[in-house]
Design brief:
The complex is a heterodimer. Chain A has six helices and three strands, in the order ααβββαααα. By secondary structure, chain A is an alpha+beta fold. In chain A, strands 1-2-3 form a three-stranded antiparallel beta sheet, with helices on one face. In chain A, β1 and β2 form a beta hairpin. Chain A is globular. Chain B is an alpha/beta fold. Chain B is built from 13 helices and 17 strands. In chain B, the strands form five sheets. Chain B has a seven-stranded mixed beta sheet with strand order 4-10-9-8-7-5-6, with helices on both faces. A four-stranded antiparallel beta sheet of chain B has the order 13-14-17-16, covered by helices on one side. In chain B, a hairpin with a 4-residue loop joins β11 and β12. The longest helix of chain B has 25 residues. The chains are: A alpha+beta, B alpha/beta.
Chain lengths: 153, 415
């Protein structure tokens, strides 16, 4: 039956992250905050990042609504970037975006993404690439803002 | 299949393909419909034999192009029962038509303190032009609410439409709820208060017999691509007296009459509102779509869809874990079904249905205030048209069942 192909997208680890998302909460002491919407579907992610004095991600949390793919992607992203430097996190976001668009990347870069690397399967479902990248775009936008606490929608 | 004598699949080659190894079940007709070979042939014929600009030319091809373009206008006039071809303006589509009314008639007649009345189920194209007009003019935008059944609340309409109301703009059929609006009754109400009424026919003109004179609407907009025609072409109907008294808002091309260094005059209706080179092939393709629908008969199109609704709606309502929005009475429902499977995001559902060959829309359907009213971020939407059959209904129902099983099994496995 047709749905057997769905296993390629909805791998157990993805479903598990969606069912039990990590770091799904707001941060009171965030240094960088952003709200991003996917206007075509109404999904929304509010990302809070707390950078320490050396520009490392001391804490991160997300809230909002979204599909299985966007929620699990956010959960995986927060796992992967926790404790990383701002520069390293930005590099990971770039790696992720490139990966889901089908571009080749060194295995070491993909390993850095941890569970999130499994979302490369989203490539086979072009309509869902935006769902997977929303959290990583939010991370990029939050970190690149010059001012400390930023808000946008 | 649902037998109403409509057997048209031979005209829609696109529908006979397999998608993701499954037979295609195309249920995204509220977004756009497929095109029969007759429409595709009309476009090809025009470009291969008759392509020229309209009105300006003296040569033979220009005369042919002009004749076909104006013939298409005549077909549309007949299709919606307008009094004369001059009342049929070709636009880019519904959105373009509604914006045209807001930017011309609306701009001229709405003043500070006036009221514009729409409903909470309008899609953005029949909401934002009025919202922005109201903001520009310091007018008030009022929303008619819905009944618990998901129909337009007529008691609320009677409250909201007052002597201050200048424009009432309402959808003729909801693109989410499948509700049909009693436009004729609301036109009477609007006129009683001295307001004009604008009908958004995007989801009605393809499916119901529309008679703009009987409805007594002042303006009525719809799209070609939702009724078997090409994209980029649509129609704005307007009563001649209103159109005559309204200034154009785009200038150039065939809408010009006389230009001097200091002033210009405009040509007659309908060309006054058709600046620039129009979508000539699109209009001719729309004409072919009208021919196709007229050959079947809009009564039969509507009856076929009613059969589908009567078959599907009770079955959808019977499914566990499914929320179905809009009227539960099949006689009050068009072939548009918005629903959600409990615990599943509509995007996940739409991807899963696609893997079963079933094409549906998931999202807010350009009706965000309605989603807020329904307390939903988004819904799944399956929308039917004349070429859909009982087999499509069964494929949808089976696919919904499989989606539920996949995700309940998947999440159990994940734990």
């Amino acid at each position: 039956m047709g749905l057997s192909k769905l296993n390629r997208l909805y791998r157990a680890v993805i479903l598990d992250h969606a069912a039990h998302p990590h770091h799904q909460h707001a941060l009171a002491a965030a240094t960088n905050t952003i709200t991003l919407k996917n206007p075509t579907c109404g999904d929304v992610i509010k990302l809070d990042v707390k950078l320490d004095a050396t520009d490392h991600i001391e804490d991160i949390g997300f809230t909002g609504d979204g599909c299985t793919i966007s929620q699990s992607s956010a959960s995986m992203m927060t796992d992967a970037v926790m404790g990383k430097s701002k520069e390293a996190a930005l590099h990971m976001a770039k790696t992720f975006s490139d990966m889901v668009m089908g571009q080749e990347h060194p295995q070491a870069d993909l390993d850095q993404l941890q569970d999130a690397a499994i979302l490369s399967s989203v490539m086979q479902f072009p309509a869902r690439i935006k769902c997977a990248t929303l959290a990583w775009w939010a991370l990029q936008r939050a970190l690149l803002r010059a001012d400390q606490v930023t808000k946008e929608d | 299949m649902v037998s109403n004598g409509i057997e048209v699949t031979q005209d829609f080659a696109i529908l006979t393909q397999r998608v993701n190894d499954e037979p295609l079940t195309y249920l995204d007709n509220a977004a756009t419909t497929q095109k029969p070979r007759q429409v595709i042939a009309a476009l090809t014929r025009f470009y291969q034999h008759d392509n020229a600009n309209v009105h300006r030319g003296i040569h033979t091809l220009a005369a042919r192009a002009t004749a076909q373009y104006e013939a298409a206008r005549g077909k549309v006039q007949h299709f919606i029962h307008a009094a004369e071809p001059a009342e049929v303006i070709f636009t880019k589509g519904t959105t373009d038509g509604l914006n045209l009314v807001a930017s011309t008639y609306g701009e001229a007649h709405v003043q500070a303190g006036d009221e514009i009345v729409i409903s909470i189920m309008e899609h953005h194209s029949n909401l934002i032009p009025w919202q922005q007009l109201a903001l520009r003019k310091h007018a008030t935008l009022k929303y008619i609410g819905l009944t618990a059944e998901g129909e337009l609340d007529l008691a609320d309409a009677a409250q909201k439409i007052t002597d201050k109301t200048k424009i009432v703009a309402l959808t003729h059929a909801s693109n989410v709820l499948g509700t049909v609006t009693p436009l004729k009754r609301l036109a009477r109400l609007a006129h009683h208060h001295g307001a004009v009424i604008v009908g958004d026919g995007a989801q009605a003109a393809p499916h119901l017999k529309v008679d703009v004179q009987d409805l007594d609407v002042d303006f009525y907009a719809f799209s070609g691509h939702k009724m078997l025609g090409p994209t980029g072409i649509g129609v704005l109907y307007g009563k001649r007296a209103l159109l005559d008294a309204t200034e154009p808002y785009q200038y150039g091309g065939e809408m010009i009459d006389l230009v001097t260094r200091d002033a210009s005059t405009w040509t007659a209706l309908p060309w006054k509102f058709e600046a620039g080179t129009p979508n000539i092939a699109g209009a001719i393709g729309l004409g072919a779509a009208v021919d196709y629908l007229e050959a079947i008969g809009m009564d039969r199109v509507a009856a076929h869809e009613h059969h589908l609704v009567a078959e599907l709606l009770p079955k959808l309502l019977d499914l566990d874990d499914l929320d179905v929005y809009g009227p539960h009475d099949p006689t009050k429902h068009t072939g548009v079904f918005a629903f959600n499977i409990k615990g599943l995001h509509p995007h996940d559902v739409a991807t899963a249905l696609d893997m079963d060959g079933v094409a549906v829309r998931a999202g807010h359907h350009c009706a965000q205030p309605l989603m807020q009213e329904l307390h939903q971020v988004a819904t799944v939407r399956a929308s039917f048209y004349l070429y859909n059959t009982s087999a499509d209904i069964n494929r949808l129902l089976n696919a919904i069942q499989e989606v539920k099983e996949f995700f309940s099994h998947g999440s159990v496995e994940a734990k």
